[in-house]
Amino acid sequence: MVNNQNQPAVETHQLVKKFGSFAAVDNLNLRIEFGETYGMLGPNGSGKTTTIKILCGLLKITDGEAFVLGKKAGAPSIAPRIGYMPQETALYLDLTVHDNLRLFGEIYGMSKVDIEREEANLLRFIDLEEWRNAPISTLSGGMRHRVSLACSMLHNPELLFLDEPTVGVDPELRASFWDYFEALRKRGVTVIITTHYMDEAHHCSKVGLLRQGQLIAEGTPEEITKSAGATSLEDAFLTLARRGE
Ligand SMILES: Nc1ncnc2c1ncn2[C@@H]1O[C@H](COP(=O)(O)OP(=O)(O)O)[C@@H](O)[C@H]1O
Ligand SMILES: [Mg+2]
């Protein structure tokens, strides 16, 4: 894995993204180290998706800077090294699960053998082996979500952006998703994951709390909870949000 000394996986300086005059991301300074399972937490509309899209090179920056794997966000050379699961699943509805996975693999230049191997592993993981040849249009929302997750990981990226991967996923599968993210972390994969479920934060090695496009707290879940004098992360968030008003 390429990892220059002291170079973080993700770094932003005074990052701003405006839609019209509204700042969805407002002078955001992030530094996410390699190997971290970083939870970007915040209520709906706090700028999580906008930030992830900028880091994946899908949105233009209004002001400031964003670096991913040591390069400017959006640099073509980093695309094969990152995976992105969008909040809104982007699958071909008329194609089968297998064809969607194959297509993603081909986009990333994977060989047929590699695609087949990774596909088999991932279908087992998302528990959709029996649905391999079913068109996406016949799958439930939760199942589509699982396919979307598999598509983002097929090419074994070293940095994975997951935008609300556990929404609409039943509790049992949610738990197995987190087990898998933990396994990815052990393999050295950096995972940046957004969620508005505060109870998921304890799975993360580090958490950043976003509010109105700004980082209002960062640290391990325990550190944040303690610094706010709260008993849960949810309470800590409310305390910290009130302090910022
Ligand atoms: N394309 C857009 N045009 C205008 N406003 C947008 C656009 N995308 C996001 N926003 C606004 O930016 C804010 C942050 O949105 P988003 O990044 O999706 O938040 P989150 O993912 O935390 O729910 C919201 O107020 C949203 O309405
Ligand atoms: Mg979002």
Task: Write a concise keyword list for the protein shown above.
binds adenosine-5'-diphosphate; 10 strands; Rossmann fold; alpha/beta; binds magnesium ion; six-stranded mixed beta sheet; four-stranded antiparallel beta sheet
Walkthrough of the structure:
The protein has 245 residues and is α/β, with parallel strands linked by helices. It has one domain (35-47, 74-243): 3-Layer(aba) Sandwich (Rossmann fold), CATH 3.40.50.300. Helices cover 33% and strands 25% of the residues. It has 7 helices and 10 strands. The protein has helices spanning 48-55, 97-107, 112-125, 141-153, 171-186, 221-227, 233-243; strands spanning 10-19, 22-32, 37-41, 63-68, 71-72, 82-85, 159-163, 190-195, 206-211, 214-219. It has a 6-stranded mixed β-sheet, with helices on both faces. A 4-stranded antiparallel β-sheet has the order 2-1-4-5, with helices on one face. The longest helix has 16 residues, at 171-186. The protein is globular, with a radius of gyration of 18 Å. Residues 19, 24, 42, 44-50 line the site of adenosine-5'-diphosphate.
